[in-house]
Design goal:
With 225 residues, the chain is an alpha/beta fold. It contains 8 helices and 11 strands.
Length: 225
């Protein structure tokens, strides 16, 4: 496995590089976002790990730029910022996971391995999903309800895809966090609630029939009734 580490604290770079190499993980590193972006565009990595606050180009902008250039390598953001808004901002930029400092190295290692496995998953899903009057084209990243196109962000699209794949089944907030983003959110976090509300405002609110239902104490369920 080969990862790219973008971190401006040299001691942290040395410590993480040493720890990762002990687990047979090859490491390239950059001390600023600009250099990190150049490396990410030039080389292939299994996972990109970036601190959010780095010189040159911060982690949010770096991730968003890589996604705009068609680089889909899983990105793990490291940060001292822990508010829901910051997490949402990172996820909307295209990040796949988010780890708040201080963190345990074993947890970081587990996240890296999980992201690497997901990045290598080559199982081709169905290209079109249908539920009620909703049609999702997974290749074109388009969704229509009743023939009306709905504009969703990448994370909203991923959440809606998960709901459709699990239609009629109760899904908990923890399950959504783990399965949609491979993230174990703190129990106090309301990031999942925020995204479900975003989705409802676009997929349910403009239409007469509501499809996304809350199951108090259990989570959510997508059903046509």
């Amino acid at each position: 496995m080969k990862v790219l580490l973008i971190e401006d604290e040299k001691k942290a770079v040395q410590s993480l590089t040493k720890g990762l190499k002990e687990h047979q993980i090859e490491v390239d590193f950059a001390l600023d976002g600009t250099t990190g972006t150049e490396l990410a565009l030039k080389n292939e990595y299994d996972v990109i790990i970036s601190d959010i606050i780095v010189p040159g180009m911060n982690g949010f902008d770096l991730t968003q730029y890589l996604r705009s250039q068609g680089i889909n390598t899983p990105v793990l953001l490291l940060t001292a910022l822990s508010s829901t808004d910051d997490k949402v901002l990172g996820l909307e930029a295209g990040a796949d996971d988010y780890l708040t400092k201080p963190y345990d190295f074993k947890e970081l290692l587990a996240r890296i391995k999980a992201l690497s496995r997901r990045g290598k998953d080559t199982n081709a899903p169905k290209s079109v999903l249908v539920f009620a009057d909703i049609e999702m084209n997974l290749l074109a990243k388009e969704i229509y309800r009743g023939g009306v196109k709905i504009e969703l962000t990448p994370k909203e699209f991923a959440l809606m895809e998960y709901f459709i794949r699990n239609q009629g089944k109760a899904v908990s907030k923890a399950e959504i966090a783990e399965k949609v983003w491979d993230i174990n959110f703190e129990t106090s976090s309301n990031v999942v609630e925020v995204y479900v509300n975003y989705l409802r405002n676009k997929v349910d609110k403009p239409f007469q029939k509501k499809l996304i239902h809350t199951l108090f104490g259990q989570g959510y369920i997508l059903k046509d009734e």
